[in-house]
User: Fold these one by one.
Assistant:
Number 1:
Amino acid sequence: KQEVTQIPAALSVPEGENLVLNCSFTDSAIYNLQWFRQDPGKGLTSLLLIQSSQREQTSGRLNASLDKSSGRSTLYIAASQPGDSATYLCAVSWITGANSKLTFGKGITLSVRP
Amino acid sequence: NAGVTQTPKFRILKIGQSMTLQCTQDMNHNYMYWYRQDPGMGLKLIYYSVGAGITDKGEVPNGYNVSRSTTEDFPLRLELAAPSQTSVYFCASSYLQREAYNEQFFGPGTRLTVL
């Protein structure tokens, strides 16, 4: 079964720390992987999309990497700020799926302490 | 562009009632999706559409129906509401050129409670 796992479910760090959020997936035959941010009571905001042929993508203080062979992606957040506090979800689109359906992990709830 | 909009934001239903969740996108996206999110869980796909007049089931379609008569609109219908349908519902859209580039954009969600 194609699954996406995000561990731990919650993370608390002090402001200014560099941190890594992990995502693992069970099948390496992917089209792409997306990282989303979700604020409490809000919708999902797309942060980064990594295509199957790419190793990483960067946007500001965010860097996402992809290692298909090991079934892993990481989201690196540099110099974390209290405003980064949110839930971060990883989602995968698989080649053996159909029509770009995304399978989501359960998310990591990040709290950045001032 | 407003992006993906959803109405209503909140709704309380009684068991057995019906309702339609509205979703509209103004980005001329061909693909649209409905997900539900339960507390502490990731999102699960209910239905999706690859274009006007074409819909297909996702992972958890039971108890729901959809239609896609225009590119912009993708309503989700609950015919006989049950407590198990208490959830937050998200609509999303994307423009598929190649699968690898298919980035999905989400609406703000509808929070539904069935009592």
Number 2:
Amino acid sequence: DVQLEESGGGLVQPGGSLRLSCTASGFNFLKYWFHWVRQAPGKGLVWLARVNTEGSSTTYADSVKGRFTISRDNAKNTLYLQMNSLRAEDTAVYYCVRDLFDVLTGRGPPGYWGQGALVTVSA
Amino acid sequence: EVVLTQSPATLSLSPGESATLSCRASESISSFLAWYQQKPGQAPRLLIYDASNRATGIPARFSGSGSETDFILTISSLEPEDFAVYYCQQRSVWPLTFGGGTKVEMK
């Protein structure tokens, strides 16, 4: 079974930093692209970033470009989101998401979601 | 970026009725559209990918259609567990974008 478990969420002051982790199991981590998607309380889904299989290529939403960094450690089957210069509007549940298919099968859309980690930015 | 507009915002229906949800893209996205279901307190679940392909384990009452800019998610006969929020999402162009969602509520 595909399992994605986020950790590292919590309360942080405006201007602060936080690093989310996502530990993956049940599949070959090396073969998939990953994403981070967030959802502010009572709001819709917003895609934030993606990383390729090697971690050598990334893409970001404009809202987080320059502040957030997506990365991965393939030896540890772990995805990360480093969040700096946090703002109140970054308060949200952050989801780690895996592509539906591996890179050889054409990737597909974001298909498997973790349960999410709540990040609250408040003084 | 590609803007996805979902309509209606809310759909009030009874179990057994059919639901038709719309998603319109601001530019052509070919068939690179997915649909997700989200229930309160849960992560989204993929229902449909590439406009019309059901994901693994998704019941046949869920079907998707459309291409280019206009897409439809149909739930043929609503079950009690289908009352939820539904999002469309495109992967044709970076950044990936989601629609604002349609809430299917019980009448």
